[in-house]
Design goal:
Layout (H helix, E strand, L loop, with lengths): L2 H15 L5 E2 H8 L3 H13 L3 E6 L2 E6 L7
Antiparallel strand pairs: 1-3, 2-3
Helix pairs in contact: 1-3
Length: 72
């Protein structure tokens, strides 16, 4: 897996998340068609760029887009 592939997968995941709802990991995996490794790398990429938030509720992991507002 190369950086370009991870970046492309991150774009695919970001596009899915752009509907502004919380997605479960399983929903993202099913809808994106990515493997666990590819989805994990894409989410890591988006997390490092502060584009996504993660929320754990009991045994369920939710992922959603961040809203970053910079004033200044």
């Amino acid at each position: 897996m190369c950086r370009n592939e991870i970046g492309m997968n991150a774009g695919k995941v970001w596009h899915l998340l752009s509907d502004n709802r919380k997605w479960t990991y399983e929903e993202l995996k099913e809808k994106s068609g990515l493997t666990d490794m590819d989805l994990g790398a894409a989410l890591g990429w988006l997390g490092r760029e502060d584009k996504v938030e993660f929320e754990q509720e009991e045994q369920q992991l939710y992922v959603f887009l961040c809203v970053n507002v910079y004033i200044g």
